[in-house]
Each structure stands twice: as C-alpha cells, then as structure tokens.
C-alpha cells in the first residue's frame, strides 16, 4: 500500500532506507577526574575503557576544553562557557546559557542521543551542573563543576 496522496504512485521506490551506520565501540584511555591525569593498571601502563565509561571521559574533556584556543582540537570540540560563569548575570539566565553551551558542546558526538534533566547550582563564579545523557550504550548521570577562569 502506498503512503502517497496519489494511490497509483508507488512511493517505496523513492524512500531512502535509513540504515544506521555501525559505530565502532567508543574507546578512551582511563582517566582520573580528581587528579586530572591518565590512570595506570598494576603494571604501570595506561589502559582503555569502553562504552559509557569512555563517553564520560569524552564529555569531561569537551566541557573542560575552551573552544578555538588549541590547534590540536577541531572547531567542533570544546565550549565557550568559562567566561560566562564569571559574569554577574541573573542565575536563571546563566542556567539557560550553560544548558545551551553544554548542548552545543556535546550533541555533535554521534554516540550521544539526548541530554535531559539539567540541574544547576550556581554560587559566585562556580556552577555545578548535573544532567542525564542518553547514549547508544544506555543512560548515564553526569555531574561537573565549572569554575570561571579554570581552563
């Protein structure tokens, strides 16, 4: 049966088959968020993590990297929110702008399907952000502290 408004036209010939490309499993070096360095195993070697654990590391680096300042990264990687946190603007406006910057920084990643459940705690030049990430691997909760001037 045709979905066309003209029943004599077979639209199945013109429909694109939307087959999703197979994504390689996301892989990153294991990372210590508190010490801001790579983790090592018992043998003293760096090791890999996969899936959502790797995605958490990618998100952390994307949110902690200022956009357009490092030649090692493309223009798509990073964000512009560090200067925003230091500005004395209304907390509601700041929360909306932070949400927009976070969304812009993360949604180009093909492993991320959705960001939701944003919560913000803003105190002076520090903002703590919490949100949920729906990825191809499932859902994770993410929390990060953003400070003005920290890059």
Automatic annotation (TrEMBL):
Superkingdom, natural source: Bacteria
Pfam families assigned to the protein according to its UniProt record, in alphabetical order: Sheath_initiator (PF10934)
Q: What name goes with this protein?
A: Phage protein
* Organism of derivation: Amedibacterium intestinale
Q: What is the lineage of its organism?
A: Bacteria, Bacillati, Bacillota, Erysipelotrichia, Erysipelotrichales
């Amino acid at each position: 049966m045709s979905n066309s408004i003209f029943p004599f036209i077979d639209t199945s010939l013109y429909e694109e088959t939307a087959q999703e490309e197979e994504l390689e499993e996301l892989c990153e070096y294991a990372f210590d968020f508190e010490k801001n360095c790579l983790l090592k195993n018992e043998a003293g070697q760096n090791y890999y993590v996969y899936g959502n654990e790797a995605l958490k590391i990618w998100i952390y680096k994307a949110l902690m990297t200022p956009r357009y300042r490092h030649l090692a990264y493309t223009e798509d990687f990073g964000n512009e929110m560090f200067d925003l946190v230091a500005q004395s603007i209304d907390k509601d406006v700041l929360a909306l702008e932070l949400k927009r910057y976070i969304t812009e920084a993360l949604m180009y990643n093909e492993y991320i399907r959705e960001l939701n459940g944003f919560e913000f705690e803003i105190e002076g030049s520090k903002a703590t952000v919490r949100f949920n990430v729906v990825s191809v691997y499932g859902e994770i909760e993410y929390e990060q502290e953003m400070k003005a001037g920290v890059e």
